[in-house]
Amino acid sequence: MFLKHLTNYLLVLTLIYLLTDTGAVNVTRGETASLSCLSNSEKFERVSVYWIKNNNTTVCGYHLIDHKDQTISGSCEPRFSLNTTHFFLSIDNVEFSDAGNYTCKTSRILPPPTIDYISYAILHVEGLSMQRLNSSNATCVHLLCSLEGLNPARVNFTWSIEGQNIYHPSTSSDMSSELHLCKPEWIGGDTITCNASYLSTKRLYSQSILLTDDVTDDVTDDVTDDVTGEVTGEVTERHINKSVLIIACSGVAGIIFCLIITIVLCKYKARKKRDGIIFSNKIYENFSFATARQTAQAIPKPQTVECIYEN
After folding, report:
1. pLDDT, greater one: 151 or 190
2. How far, in whole angstroms, is CA 289 from its chain's centroid?
3. In the chain, at which end, N or C, are there fewer CB atoms within 10 A of the end residue's CB?
């Protein structure tokens, strides 16, 4: 009876261990996140591994990992990668949309018997986001700067343009701040930066935006917090215009080169034709002169008949 209760107790402990929460992982937007998968991978010869986000999206699925035969079959979504030895999940260039609940499911196939392991991880993504809101006045810009992924707390927001602090009134709440500027306080090409100091951890977040006359702007993050930015239509348009200019210049240069070659060939043919006529005339003249000379030499001179009269 005692052994039976002990066995049930051990089974419950095993179940709690297998169905465990690895805890929350906090990363800053743009960094690399690593989520652990709890399983005794050292004793696996053949296993299947699946990472699932929010119980409905499989971001990594490897239905066969054979450590003995070095056989691997499976794939992951872009920016996601799986360590095939310890089964932890890596996410590069983390975005706010990557935050959520992740489940790691592993099934040991060899050696038998088949055993399933399940572990959980929660990913929190924090960072500063900035966006340009629509404005009824085309000469004005309306910017919204928000600190996301953190518990609501007191945050100090400051704004700057081209490195100079902006003392223009702004509307701020616990986790966001809005700035409204009209020309001539800004011009196209200005870079406006939003700084947020999270007082709970004393950490500074920063993000910048390149203003254009269009609504779409180039949002870039400070290297200390957010590494990546969004590519805007303006940058793409610059590349397209540059490519068109290069192609047009190449075409004009090609046409000019063809014209030069054509003119040179025409002049060369005309000169060659002219030189050939003169040479033929010279041959003809020489030939006529030689023929006349030979004819003159061929005519025998009349011999003088001398008569000797003897007295």
Report:
1. 190
2. 83
3. C
